[in-house]
Write a structure and sequence with these properties.
The chain has 227 residues and is α+β, with helices and mostly antiparallel strands. 18% of the residues lie in helices and 31% in strands. Strands 2, 3, 4, 5, 6, 7, 8 and 9 form an eight-stranded mixed β-sheet that branches. A three-stranded antiparallel β-sheet has the order 1-10-11.
Length: 227
């Protein structure tokens, strides 16, 4: 199978938009306060994740990984994201959560997510309150990813690892939890139909194009908070 990024003339920013989900209700603001998020993870509702396994396009050995989904507790809750550097071997240049492969020394997925966040963006665990995890998400590149959702104190300072992270930025949680901003895409290639979400965010003069696995995990967070 061929990775989407290697398909001739594939450009995620230029792919047709099949539709958005404006018919679905946005998550109510009262559910996105720190107290409400703590309560939601402490007593989860019955719910169903929407995106769990991408269509496989790599024959590499499956690798366990974890990402931190950091909700920064500002006056308006914000989600911290990174822009990966262009030279990385996988998902180069894409927008992602801080995270990476599990090390043998990591006790669990939470330990992986916290370690990677500190290594990638200098986010120290003392500023982080882990709330819980979302269902495992399997990428087309055979990463078995556990998303770890956490609250982050606004007083933190970031130090980016220039070898892995080009930029770090924040997007309002309310924007990401409004399905009117969830765009659907699909592409048929070599007899396989691939489908994905994108959630473009206009960050001043720059557009941040959130798509693929990151958008899929955010979509699952939307399903969790709206259940």
């Amino acid at each position: 199978m061929t990775p989407l990024a290697l398909i001739p003339n594939f450009d995620p920013l230029r792919m047709p938009v099949l539709g958005t989900d404006g018919h679905l209700a946005a998550v109510d603001g009262a559910r996105m306060t720190p107290a409400a998020l703590r309560q939601r993870f402490a007593a989860p509702p019955q719910w169903q994740a929407e995106v769990l396994v991408e269509k496989k396009f790599s024959n590499r050995q499956p690798t366990h990984a974890a990402v931190l989904v950091p909700v920064v507790m500002r006056d308006e809750p914000m989600v911290l994201l990174t822009q990966r550097t262009a030279h990385l071997s996988t998902h180069s240049g894409q927008i992602a959560f801080p995270g990476g492969k599990t090390d043998k020394t990591d006790a669990d997925a939470v330990a992986t997510a916290l370690r990677e966040a500190q290594e990638e963006v200098g986010l120290h665990a003392r500023h982080v309150q882990v709330l819980g995890t979302l269902p495992i998400y399997v990428t087309g590149t055979a990463f078995i990813v556990t998303p770890v959702v956490a609250l982050v104190e606004p007083g933190h300072q970031l130090t980016l690892n220039a070898g892995e992270v080009a930029e770090a930025f924040e997007v309002p949680l309310a924007y990401l939890m409004n399905p009117a901003h969830h765009r659907r895409h699909a592409l048929d290639w070599e007899g396989v139909r691939r489908e994905w979400f994108s959630m473009p965010w206009q960050d001043g003069a720059q557009q941040r194009f959130i798509w693929g696995a990151t958008a899929g995990m955010l979509r699952n967070l939307y399903r969790f908070l709206s259940a």
